Amino acid sequence: MELKQEFQQVIEKIVGPSRVATEENICLSYAYNAVLGKDVVRKPDMVAMAQTTAEVSEILQAANQYHVPVTPKGITGTTGHGGCLRGGVLLDLTLMDQILLIDPVNMKAVTEAACSFFKLAQELFKVDLMLPTAPYGPGPNVAASAITPVNAFGETKYGANINLVEGFEVVLPSGEIVQIGSLAYQDKPFGPYYRYITGPDLVGLFTKSNGALGIVTKVAYRCLKKPQCWSFHTYYWPEDQIKELAQMVLETTAAEIFDVHLNDRWSWAMIQSVRIPDDCFYLAEFILNGENEQELAGREQCLREICESLGGKNLPGFAEDFYTRWPTHFMFMEMVVPPRSTLPAKMPRRYMIMFDELLFPTSWLPEVYTKMVALCKKYDILNFPKIAAFSGFPMNAQTISGHWWTPIDDTDPQVMESFYACQAEFRAWFGEQGGTFQQRIPPAAPDYAWTNQLGAFNLIRRIKELLDPNDILSPGTFELGEV
Amino acid sequence: METLRKQKLREFKESWTLCAHCGTCNARAPIIPHNWRELPPPEWSAPYRRCPSFEYYNYRAYTAQGRNVLATLFFDDAHYPITEDLLKIVYTCTSCGVCSDICKATDPLTAVWAWREELTARGAQLPEPLEQIHQRIQDSGNMFGAKQAIQRNDLPQAGKDVFFAGCNVRFAQPQVIDAVAKTLHKAGIDIAYLGDHEICCGFIPGYDGNTDLMERQAQLNVENLRQAGCQRVIVSCAHCYRALSVDYSLLVGPLPFEVVHYADLLAQLLEDKKLAFRESSPAQVTYHDPCFLGRFGQIYDAPRTVIQSIPGVELVEMERNRRWSYCCGSGAKISAACYPEFGGAISKDRIAEGLRAAGTIVTACTTCVHQLTRAARNEGIDVAVKDLSVLAAERLA
To answer: How many Cβ pairs within 8 Å bridge chains A and B?
Structure first.
């Protein structure tokens, strides 16, 4: 869209000329996302960098006056779907990255929206606190982690990131600044202490909202005491025992194991330096903890009993190495992308994520996995050295958040045609079962995510129209059909 | 030049989807929070501010992930518009290399270098200061366009150990010639100095995209050094070191001489007991790791060994040191030439960091010395910036 010069001048007056850019290349640098690849372009017409909540408020007031879309974004573009579907202003919140409060006694933390999750996690670690649901990479910020789905370790015991969020400061589309949840009382002597203080759960209103109902500028977290003792274990199962694998996940999740992480052997096929046993097809890596060695030993025994009773075999040292050897699994690229020299012949070094944040009941793991494998074989995506690798993050709601990725030559049109056909067929089947996945929930083609829940969708639409009559915030987020 | 544009470009094109936009290259945050049991060791404790162009300009386009996106679009489209804003994004990368040191998967800096070569190949009009530098190198053999280098009649113009002084020293830092000559003489090594027979190493054109000019410089320098009977080249500038030790052999084939940085040589001489320092007044100094000596050359310990061998001199590390050292602002002599305000701001940041550690900043690159000294003067900051060779010569036993 073409922005009026007058509008640009207004925004420049709010944040200063050096924090407003309309240059083509600056805008293009925000237009891509790792998950969606280079075929999906979401280019803003202007990038504006706000540094304070007041600036965000003024920008939204101006955007309303000039009917210009505004979409917020932090630093990363890994698996999030953020981006300007309708052009307009990309509100870069990178500069709002301060930690405002760490209260070790009441175990609370408050940060600005774009504070890196890693930064907060490290500062909490120093005072023996933790946020267990740490995503990969330092780029994901606290606001994005709260308002979008995030793959995370620690979800098995504690659930999604949003479960630990207690309050938001939000700028509504009108520019009005509101504090909700625990932050509603942030200026009172008690400080921010409880999520449900405002009655109806307004924090939840902004969950997975992609900034379409308001722009989150501060986040309050409920933190946890960091256990003193940790250990890491791996068990594995052969290919024909996926039912036993699913049962193991159900039982370890019920037993409140800190973290269960699933892979199939294809996840390691790109890394020839990693040797796994021939009879190993599914791997489960576990993180256990305890306040003391005795508690930890009890959990280890519990894990051992569950896994061995279901036919799992131990793989000593594997998870210990994965989770604790520096730079550890948190150094995403270091761990995931292998050097060319280690690749099997003819395997492309680059990869695409076929599905991210696939959500389905843990009990459905055998059906979902089997369906995906059948389709990958049908479309010639899984035929070694062609591989399609699965990773799963079981969550405490007996739900798995999973993703599939494949090394692929995305310059080959035939290969990509197969890739997209496979994706479409799985997506249709999966959607009909009630599943959702991140790339296709708001704002990109929210077909099954919304048609499966039309009542809820219509309510969200009504709330959206009420809060944002000019549809300026992240437009396209709550719409049916392909975008 | 086969090294970057052809080989690395091919590799880069293959690796587009390797960039997961995770932000590790530039996010103001730790690159690893902890491993549940402990915080990361120093080599994995990245500083929060690590990408100079991102820190100054703030937009994603000025980060490795943003440049990866734009480079891909550029390589995919032979008619991609070459605009002023595109050139600014390309040439404000300081080549400090911290992004590539963090992300081995995409090696984003190599993509920038390949991108610059591609720009040149497409006939782009480079930023005016670079065109001027190229012209001066072609006309006068040095980046300043000066007519005559500092002459040293007391030093031979031929010999097996030749000091390759670099443009900064040959025209602006004569004290480094004195220092290197004096120190090495004390250890029994008499250096030759080519004076006007040495020409610019060609690093700037090589790394701003004009590899043809770098190749020409390489051919001329190698021939001059061969004629001088050189068996070992001793360099003082980290950029010259990179050019001679890495690029020249790729451009003109195997070299008939060895290339060493004097920091490495001094450390070796100390270990061999061929050199010693005298007791002197106590002083605190900090050491600035030049990007092309540290991250690219992996020479971290030698300069520290030299400093710590001087009785009375205490080395106090800056917050960002060794692997995590920050650019001096020169930007491989390219960014500061094109965008001096940006270069000056980075220098000011680095000087302030140096001053928090000690009153004297020592470094082992004459380009860093030049940049930091000039920035301090421009900003009115009282700080001593000293080349390692000068510090060593002052304290010789």
So the answer is: 184
DSSP state of B6: I
Question: How far apart (Å, rounded) are the C-alpha atoms in residues A415 and B47?
Answer: 41
Q: Give me the domains of chain B, ranges plus CATH numbers.
A: 2-121 (1.10.1060), 161-267 (3.40.50.1860), 274-394 (3.40.50)
The edge-to-edge listing of strands for the beta sheet with B283-288 is: B313-315, B283-288, B360-363, B384-387
Q: Measured between CA atoms, how close is B351 to chain A, in angstroms? A: 23
Confidence band for B12, pLDDT divided at 50, 70 and 90: low
The 8-class DSSP code of residue A325 comes to S
User: Tell me: the pLDDT tens digits for A435-482?
Assistant: 877 654 444 544 566 777 788 889 989 999 999 999 999 988 887 765
Nearest to A216 by CA among A145, A159, A160: A145
Residues of A in contact with B23 (CB under 8 A): 75-76, 78, 116, 137-140
Pick from A15, A25, A130 the residue to mutate for testing the B interface (most B CBs within 10 Å). A25
Over range B252-273, report the average pLDDT. Answer: 97
pLDDT of B326 above 90: yes
Select from A35, A65, A92 the last residue of a domain: A92
Min Cα separation A222/chain B (Å): 18
Which residues in B lie closer than 8 A to residue A230 (C-beta atoms)?
A: 36-37
Residues A177 and A144 in one domain: yes
Q: CA nearest A33 in B: which residue? A: B21
How many whole angstroms separate alpha carbon A416 and alpha carbon A408?
Answer: 8
Tell me the nearest-neighbour CA distance from A308 into chain B, angstroms. 26
Q: Is residue A467 part of a domain?
A: no
**A326 to B32: CB separation less than 8 angstroms, yes or no:** yes
Q: Which residue has the higher pLDDT, B371 or A454?
A: B371
CB contact under 8 A, B16 and A352: no
Per CB-CB distance under 8 Å, the chain B contacts of A138 are 22-24, 27, 29-31, 33
Q: Which residue has the higher pLDDT, B235 or B14?
A: B235
Q: In angstroms, what separates the C-alpha of A297 from chain B's closest C-alpha?
A: 16
Interface pTM, i.e. ipTM: 0.93
**What DSSP element (H or E) covers B377?**
helix B366-379
CB-CB neighbors (< 8 A) of A319 in chain B: none
> Does A256 fall in a domain?
yes
A340: exposed, middle or buried (C-beta count within 10 Å: 0-12, 13-18, 19+)? exposed
Structural domain including A353 reads 344-440
List of chain B residues whose C-beta atoms are within 8 Å of the C-beta of residue A28? 61, 69-70, 73
Q: Of A104-108, A409-413, B228-232, B288-292, give the lowest mean pLDDT range.
A: A409-413
A75–B26 CB contact, under 8 Å: yes
pLDDT tens per residue, range B99-132: 999 988 788 898 899 899 999 999 999 999 999 9
* Pair A327, A214 in one domain: no
Q: Smallest CA–CA separation between A116 and chain B, in Å?
A: 6
Measured distance CA(A129)–CA(A363) in Å, rounded: 33
Query: Same structural domain for residues A81 and A118?
Result: no
Q: What is the pLDDT of residue A443?
A: 45
Residues A308, A388 within the same domain:
no
CATH number at residue A360: 3.30.70
The model's pTM: 0.94
Segments of chain A with pLDDT less than 70 = 35-37, 77-82, 134-135, 149-151, 271-273, 332-347, 349-350, 438-449, 481-483
Looking up residue A34, the CATH number of its domain turns out to be 3.30.43.10
* Token pair recorded at residue A369: 């996995």
Burial environment of residue A466 by CB neighbours within 10 A (0 to 12, 13 to 18, 19 or more): exposed
Three-state DSSP at B39 gives coil
Q: Looking at residue A340, what is its pLDDT?
A: 55
B16 and A94 within 8 Å at the Cβ level: the answer is no
* pLDDT above 50: residue B1: no
> Cα(B287)–Cα(B362) distance, rounded to whole angstroms?
5
Number of domains in chain A: 4
* Inter-chain CB proximity B20 and A287 less than 8 Å: no
Final residue before a domain boundary, out of A31, A62, A92: A92
